[in-house]
Specification:
The complex is a heterodimer of chains A (159) and B (489). Chain A has one domain. In chain A, 79% of the residues lie in helices and 0% in strands. Chain A has six helices and no strands. In chain A, helix 3 packs antiparallel against helix 4. The longest helix of chain A is centred in the last third of the chain and has 26 residues. The radius of gyration of chain A is 16 Å and the shape is globular. By secondary structure, chain B is an alpha+beta fold. Chain B is 32% helix and 24% strand. An eight-stranded antiparallel β-sheet of chain B has the order 13-10-12-11-15-16-14-17, sandwiched between helices. In chain B, strand 4 and strand 5 form a beta hairpin. Chain B is globular. In chain B, 45% of the residues are buried. The chains are: A mainly alpha (159), B alpha+beta (489). Chain B: Pfam families: FAD_binding_4 (PF01565).
Chain lengths: 159, 489
Amino acid sequence: MPMTKWPLFITVGQVIIFPYYLFWLKNSTLTFSLFALIFALFSFGAALGYHLQQKWTMPIALPIALLGMIYMLTLDVESLYIISVMQVILGFLQGYFRAWHVGQETYKLQVVWHYVIVGLAMVALSTVTIVVPQIFVAIYGFMLVICAIVMALKKCKKK
Amino acid sequence: MKRSTKTGLLVGLVGVMTGVVWWQIPIEKRTYGLSQTAMTTDYTGLMPEKVAQINEVKKREELVAIVKEAQKAKRTISIAGLQHSQGGHTYYKDGIVIDMRAFNRVLSVNEQQKTVKVEAGASWMDVQEALAKKGLALRVTQSQSIFTIGGSLSVNAHGRDIRYGSMASTVRELTIVNAQGEFETLKRGRDDERLQYILGGYGLFGVIVDVTLDVTDNTVYTMHTTEMKMADYAPHMRSILKDDRIAMHYARISVAPNSFLEDVYTIDYEKMEAIDHTSPLKGESSERLSKLGLDLGRQGGALENGFWQLQRGYMKLIDDKEINRNDAMRSESTFMEYTKPGRVEVLQEFFVPLDEFEAYVNELQQVLPHDDKKNDVKVHNITLRYVAKDDATALNYATDDMMGFVVLLQHGTSEQSIEEAKTLIRQWTDVTLKHEGTYYLPYYPYQTTDQFKKAYPNAASVYDEKQQQDPDIIFRNYFYDNYVKHAND
């Protein structure tokens, strides 16, 4: 896959995976209030991530790999204290990635494809029963880590 | 806005929000209870069922109308209060559930006769509020005041008091609506034969409408805490039973791997001269910190050892402190909420004669895992209570002067986990029966019907009485189906 297509894979994947991530999050909390509060953490974390990307930059493969690892953690984490910290980090990384993606030349073109692919993928997923959402989330997380490694290797090769 | 200010604000926002979430986590509550649109459950949520109708009653005449309607429509009736029982005692598939919670007035407090008359849907909290103003307190109640009067009487609860027997013995008069839809007033001394089936009758012999209870003074006590080895506990218990100054008592036996069923600490409440007429009832305090400590202990292993040390430390802190009777009967409960999805914390209570205590614990040490960190079924806490011999109920768990082991344990909610819990609890029940003991009936049906019949030799008479008083089995719940129905098999 050419380097310019990676962001599309990541943004589409994130949107597809998000409902399943939310199922997992809701199952981890017992009340809607706590779920909503933890989700607010995600949002504030994303605002911070978006803001800081404009100030400090790091190789994009790093936040992508971290995102993948956080998704993989859903398989094993049950403590609400850890889950709340995961939400902050996840929000931060997503905000950071979004800020980076917006700055890419291909962003506007990819946004259209993003919505189309997400729609098609969700139609396809509606036919599949996913009993344990975190397995699905973790698989996507694993793919992100691989993706980040390949991106980093390609970048090294280019240099 | 300056860039650095914006960064600071966002970091602050994330920090504050994390604090808010962490503050909220310990007091998260599980949802359970009555629902006409979804499944109805009781406290554990382990036995969900669809009920046909939920009737919230506010007037006593409504109770009569519901029973008569159920008779005509051939429907069953179950009675629900705050639903802390754990074995489907408060609902039945496709049946009518009477929700008693709005039927909650304290009707009168008689200071001269030292009695209180109260509707069955009131909680002990409501009753304590009315009594404390007059310098009075309950004779017998559970350690927490979060239960309804009707519910506690239906399970014939017991508590920390060591002088007044079980709750049933404090009932002076009781009004019920029977299976024919008639009011009946039953009096202690005159109607003991009937009362023995209603008290501790798990809602199978009528709806308790109101009750008159004997109460006592809101005496001030000094708490004495003592650490001891398990072998010294029964002699300690015998000595305080001989000492009239000690009114209440409970103890905790270690379930930490380092001192499993070896170390005990006791709390004895010594009567002072004073009666408290003025202090407001104590509320919940430090629930977040307590919940955090409890949740750490629930992990088992080294953390459970640490939790036991914390509890020992706390006991030293409260030694020689004063407390009035009402406050001693309303321990905190919010912090005990177990909020791990996919798992549940349940209660079991086993009773053995005081004389059997040491031999029983020695045998339990052989049967129970000392470190259950890696097990699905985890024993988290055991408190010890004394229950004096009781002759007031047919389903009588205190067939002698008994030591009660109140066991808090956790397990998963999958079928396999429940089976594992059943295996352990059945083993534990066998050991209890071997030591002439019994077990308590308001909980999940882990025990077999054979174990039920051995623990409750009067069960057949309860079944016969049920057929006589309620031949159409109007009052029905899962306790009836799981156990009472099989008493004559």
